[in-house]
Structures are given as structure tokens and as C-alpha cells.
Amino acid sequence: MKQYSLFLILLLAIASCSDLTDFEFEESLRSWAAPVAETESTFEDFFGSASSATSVFVDENNVATIRYTARPVRRYAGTIIDPIDLNIPIALPDNPSIITLPVPSEVQLERAVLTGEKLSVTYESDATEDVAIAITIPELSLDGTTLVLKDTLRYTGTSPMTGGILDFDLAGYTLAIPDGTIEIGYIATLGDGSAVDLNRVVFLISKRLDFSYLEGIWSNNTFTGGSDTIRISLYEDFLSGNLRIDNPRIVARFSNSFGVPVEGRLPIFQVVTVDGTEVPITSPLLSDGIKFPFPGLDENFRDIKDTTVVYDRTNSNLVEVFNSQPVRVEYQLDLVVNPDDLADVRGWIADSSLLGVDVAVEIPVQGTADQFGAETQFEIDVEADPEEQPSKIELHFFSENEIPLGIEGQIYINAQGRIVDSLFQQKTQIVSAAPVDASGNVSATAEQKTVIELTGQKLDRLLEANLLTARVNFSTSQDGSVPVTVLGDQKLKLNLGVVVTERN
After folding, report:
1. Reported pTM
2. Bond before 96 cis per omega within 30 degrees
3. Which parts of 332-422 fold into alpha helices (H)?
4. Domain map of the chain by residue range?
5. Lower CB count within 10 Å: N or C terminus of the chain?
């Protein structure tokens, strides 16, 4: 069964009350009557079968509100900051040698903590005795101790001697490179302490440098933070008429655990209407950007700072946009680091740092509907013995409605893939809207009784049908001339009874 729009749920509540498979016949009775179902539901109850992305809640003013949500968008540091690719052997020309690292362009790197890289150094000596080797890289340290790699070339009667330190694990080491360079030097000594030169020293990091933590001066850069779509089912089954929404909202909650100034921007922020038209959402808040709070250098790098932005009728064109029959909201989030392009913005990023956004569309059920037309279908399964089929069935609907919304329409009988008949002779009022005062607040409960009599071919066709098609119009009280508000505690009570008359 397809996802139902806002008001079609009301009609389905009626349909779900009736179970046409429960008819039983007794030979001793010419006709009999029995209650079939009784329900009492609030507006929130009507959304019990909605998708997980759609829900109804009651806000602080007791107004029933429909919420459509998108998947959370998350961007982690690893997808934004490129690693340093050093998977190339470097022959050291001097002792010591200065090597420039291709650090990320986004940051003047002062300090970085490495993850699991492997460092290798190979060397060669013409000496004819053992050589003790100590290789020093002052920019690498662990717990404050500078990295020194020690090894001994053993003379076995053959010269030159070759050796090396292979796959030394750099996980957890801190790399301090405020100038973007590292220095690699060595001391090679013989047994008597005299120094000798090595013929050749080759330095290699076996893969790219990845970081669990970066600290430095950050430049102005823009990253794509992600994009998504929120489906708005309100108009998906729309046929005709008018529906006006008074106070729609888009609530965006931004999360940031990057320890640098970051601003969020929405280069794409629009709705797509039922006819495919793209309508941009405008707001002064969009031109200003969204300043994300962030944890400072003295805070825990696992801290996540949140900020929430609400777009509504006071600061955007959402009323106009959401009355253009939208079926989805589309947006793209861009992330701007150091948005003011300052020269000395010091900050940090950890591998667990994230920038994220959670977006929800909230539609308080406030406004007007005037002959808002929609269509849906639901399956039926009527089983009756041909010898016991009735000659007449009467369905008696009785509604008590506290909700300022009424339903009228027609229900068509489908068999063998086509419409063969209808339940009513003409379009019929099924549920009356509760009356409202001049402010749109419900002033009384509306009662409506509807009797459907099924005989002859109409009854036979119903008993043979497998599908019903409902084409209905919804109108708020006073024919949609007064904006109304649906409250969370307003109820619709429905009763269904059946009168069955057997064939002669």
C-alpha cells in the first residue's frame, strides 16, 4: 500500500474499521444487524503506519505537527584532509639532510600525531669492522622523547656492508614541522669511537602519512559537506483543490567537533514541486552563513558542539514555498574553514572530528483546505459462499469529529484491473468537519451519519472485488475560509455497523 498523504490517513482510518470478511449467515434469520467496529483516534494516531522518516508530534502549544526527516549527513576529518603521500625512497644527499614534506595545503602544520605508518632506512658502509649507527629525526617524538633509531652493521669479511632498519612503527609518534620540513641525520662510529661516513642512506615511509591529530594555522578552504533530499508526501496524491499551510518550519541542527572556526553554507536549498518546478528557499540567514561553535585548543578533542537554526515564516519565504505544492526539499551543505580568511587562525582536527547536519521539515497542522483532492487505493478480500450470498448489505457509518477537517468523496469498486462500480450514487459527505470560531479554534463536536446500501449488481460487484479506489476531497471548517488549528488531543470517533439481508 502506498504512503498516504496528510489527510488520506483519515479516510483509511474509516476503511480500516470495516472488515467485510466477517459476515456470517444463519438460516433461521431473514436479516440481522451487528456492530462491526468502533475506533477513537487522534491526529497523531493516523500516522501509526507512516515511514520512519515521517512522524507526528504535539508541540509546546498542543498543536499537532507533522515532521519529515532526512538521513543525518556526516563528514569526518579523514574525508576532508588529505594525507601526505611519501611512498617514495629518498636518498639523503647530506648529513644531516633537510626534507620538505608535502603537507596539506589547508594547514600550516605545527604538530601532528601519526596513526600506523612504517618507516624504513637502509644504509651502506665501506668499513672493514663493525659500525654502530644512530639515526635521529628531531621532528619525531614519542612522549616527549626524540626519535633515535639504533643499529649495528656487522663486518663478516665482505665490504661494502649493507643493512637497515625496516618497518619501524610510527603509530602514536608526534610530528612537529612548523616549517614544513624534517631533518634526518646520523652518527656512524667504529669500535674505538671514531666517526665514519656512510656511502649511501635511503629514507622511506612505506605508505602515506595519516594523522590522528593535526594542529596548526588553518587557511580559508571550502569543502563539500554532503547533500540530501527530504520527501514531503503531503502532495504526492494531490489531484485538485487548495491547501494552505500557515507556519512551516525547517529545523537544521549542526554538529561540529573540528577545533577550528567553521561556517556552514547552503548553496543548494530548494523545494521541488509536484510538477517538477524548483523553488529556492530564501532567507537572510543563508547569506550570513552558519557559524559553528567549536572546541578550543584547551578542550577535549572529543567534544561536539551543536547549534540549531530554524527557518520559518519570520525569516524566510517558507510559507510561499510550502504552498507551491512541494514533494521534496533538496539541500547541499558546504563547510568553510577559517571563513573570515584570517592569517593566524590556530586550531586542530582529530581523526574522529566530524561536521554534520540533521535536517527536519516540521509542518504544524494549521491552515486551510478547500476541496483538496487526492486519491488512494486499498485492497479488500470478501469471501462468501455463493449459496449464502446476501441480497442486501447496509453499512452504517457514524462519526463524532473534534478535528476541524471534513471528508467527502466517492469510493470505487475495482475488479479485474478496472473500475466496475462505486459505493455511492454521487459524491458523498463521509465525515463532517468540527465547527470553529473566528480564530479557527474548534467550538463543538461534529456528528455525521452515513448509510451505504449495496444491492443487486453493486453488491455482486463488491463481493467479487479485490480493490477499492477512494477519490476524496478534504475541506477545513467553513469551506476552508478560516485558518484552523488541529490540536494534539482532538479526536475522531468512528463507528461502523452492518445490516445483512439474506437472499430469498
Report:
1. 0.68
2. yes
3. none
4. 8-51+368-502, 66-78+218-364, 84-209
5. C
CATH, range 66-78+218-364: 2.60.120
Residue 444 DSSP symbol = S
Find the angle CA(126)-CA(131)-CA(132) to the nearest 5 degrees. 145
pLDDT digits 0-9 by tens, 387-404: 666 788 887 878 888 888
Q: Kindly list the distances between the CA atom of residue 19 and the CA atoms of 23, 38, 497, in Å, as whole numbers in the listed order.
A: 9, 12, 11
Pick the CATH number of 84-209 from 3.40.50, 2.60.310, 2.30.38, 3.10.560: 2.60.310
Query: What are the residue ranges in the chain where pLDDT is below 70?
Result: 1-38, 43-53, 78-88, 104-105, 206-209, 235-242, 301, 372-376, 378, 380-389, 480, 503-504
Relative to beta strand 354-364, strand 64-69 is antiparallel
Q: Is residue 66 within 8 Å of residue 488, measured between CB atoms?
A: no
**Residue written as grid cell 567537533:** 257
How far is 16 from 274, CA to CA, in rounded Å? Answer: 28
**Residues 90/202, Cβ–Cβ less than 8 Å:** yes
How far from the centroid of its chain's Cα atoms is residue 480's Cα?
34
Residue 291 identity: K
- 3-class secondary structure per residue, 276-333: CCEEECCCHHHHHCEEECCCCCCCCCCCCEEEEEEECCCCCCHHHHHCCCEEEEEEEE
Tell me whether residue 433 is exposed, middle or buried, using C-beta atoms within 10 angstroms of its C-beta: 0 to 12, 13 to 18, 19 or more: buried
